[in-house]
Amino acid sequence: METLITLIQIAIGAALINNFVLHYFVGICPFLGVSRRIDTAFGMGCAVTFVISIAATLSWVFTYFILRPGAPLPAWIWQMAGGDASTQVNLSVLSYIVYIFVIAASVQFVEMYVRKFFPALYKSFGVFLPLITTNCAILFACLEIMKHLQDPMRLWALPEALTLAVGGGVGFTLAIVLMAGIREELDACDVPKPLRGPGIALIVAGILAMAFMGFAGVDRGIQSTLNAFLH
Amino acid sequence: MSASEPTALERFLNGILPENPIYRQLLGMCPTLAVTGAMKPAMTMVAATAFVLIAANVIISLIRGLLKPHLRILVFTLTIATFVTIADRFLAAYVYEMSKQLGSYIPLIIVNCIIISRCEICASKQSVGVALADAVGMSLGFGLALGSIATVREILGAGQWFGVTVLPPDVWPSWGIMALPPGAFLTLGLLLALVNWIGQRRAESLALREKQSKG
Hints:
The complex is a heterodimer of chains A (231) and B (215).
Chain A: H1 2-17, H2 28-33, H3 38-67, H4 72-80, H5 95-117, H6 119-125, H7 128-131, H8 136-147, H9 158-186, H10 198-213, H11 218-230
Chain B: H1 8-16, H2 29-34, H3 39-62, H4 72-94, H5 96-102, H6 113-123, H7 128-158, E1 160-161, E2 164-165, H8 176-179, H9 181-214
Antiparallel strand pairs in B: 1-2
């Protein structure tokens, strides 16, 4: 039960309170670039959620077994090679390169898989899929997971990591779809000439960010409600 | 190198204002919004990004003959990731507080579109000198943009500039919202509008002058 509450808290934290786009400012490029129509925005959101889950799972596996301080695999190799058992092997300097490689590879595989088995979906995703490699939201999710794998006393297991990733992806989808809905309405408005395009989009994003600030504290409320419900 | 490619000086000057990465090309938005709450983190971010941009541009330009078209993006990102790791370790060693404050945004330089786009547009096609000038120009443009946003946000949000008080709280109550995420979006949106407005005014007055000289 404790785990479930933690998972719900992580999901709500990633999707609403600390929304990837409106609080951490990651994934701004597609947020501004692909938010002109609701259906394309939703497609982009789904693609990002999909890739973010795969990349987060892979990066959790790599970080947990290889990259974190005191990881089992390099320690085992070190001892096989005759090293001193008291020495802690720390490969975290390689993290960034491994993550970017994992992201690029998973985008490539997702692209191949979707093209082979879901041609209709591939057509609608089209240009967005390769662009996701340079989407900061995905690297950011990997880095957040890495942060929670540094302290050997409180290590995140795979469910926590996956929840963060999916929550972040859902939050991204929510933000970009909301934005697209507002921008569709904005097309009918008389916006001052210098503000047209990205200017007004950024100001709308600012107001959305203010609205999302209202979610602060929701996770604690849910936690106390759940606790009261369970006990 | 074809004759139509811009020269080193053109690349350098273009980066600062005419093709400013933030205001004109709208690239690299994550750090622009995230670290501009105050001048110090913004300038640290500019320095780190400039280091990575210059180093990556020079290296990519040196190996441009070996690049295969379908693998080039991967080579770019791996080169950039290497230099970002160097910058990250350097900051953690010498300015630990600042590196903790910037947190994930230092590793996020890897996916900063400015660097990849400069590798793609300039460094993978032109010689080392041009690539270097291009990187320095773009870094200056990036620094100018981040500096302007951070100036507005720090002065309005905290009444300070580089940590020095310029607007005492009893004269000007600080707008807390400017230091928070919404302030970043609003400031960038309005500054973007200002830059566009100046550009449009200049274009109009140029057109008017041409008309007058003809008539």
